[in-house]
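Work through what follows:
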Amino acid sequence: MSTCQASPHVPTNSSGFQKASMPKLQITSDDEEANIWAKMAKRKQHKALREEAAQLEAERLKREWEQEQLEAKRQEQEHLEAKRKEQEWLEAEHWEQETQAQQKTGEPKGKEQEKAARQSKWKKRTCNWCTEMKVRCELPEGVEPEAEEARAKAGKKRAPEDVMLLRAREKRKVTRVGSAIPGESEASPLGVVMPTVPPSDPLVAVVVKGFKLIAAAMDQQMAEMWARRETQHWFNSWLGDLLGEFEFVLRPTTPVSKSSEELHSDVADMELESLQSD
């Protein structure tokens, strides 16, 4: 006879069985987790420091680059300034050489013009007195200077006072032609050069004014001297006329002198004859 024995019931859900039979798995402890968080914070801090250092380095490099650019610009400006000054110096030296060359080439022309001017002045002179006094005589047209000098020598010689008075009157008639160019300096009757355009510098204006005052004083002295000479000439002429009226008193007669000589000769002859007769 067979006997059937019932087996116990085994559940088919193995997972639940494992959960119930296996203990709960714990990965890390609390201390380890705190260490992990500390390490992560430290890494973040190091990363921030590295980024800050990189940013500072980039800023430093940027400032150095800007300084290098400024230094390069400054050097370029200095180079351009030095080049410009050198160019200006070369141009000034070139102009100075050209000016000296023009002056050297222009000297013979200036000497020739001066010589021609002197020759033209020599042709116009009439006598030695005019040449010495540096004035121009006014002769009628058609009269040659040599003929005038010969006529003056052949004529009656005048007294020195008369000649000086005549020359003084002629000197007053001499007209000095001024410069027609505006701004050109003109000479006073005594040869002092006076500028016609008033200078802008106060010191130059004072000096020019002083020269003008000196020239005016010298002109006044010359005028007074010529006036005194005219007065002296008038007095000499008046005295000569006065002495001429009494000339017959001062001048001995010729016949009286001759008669006295004849009388003395006759007396000498008579004495000689008496001695011979004895």
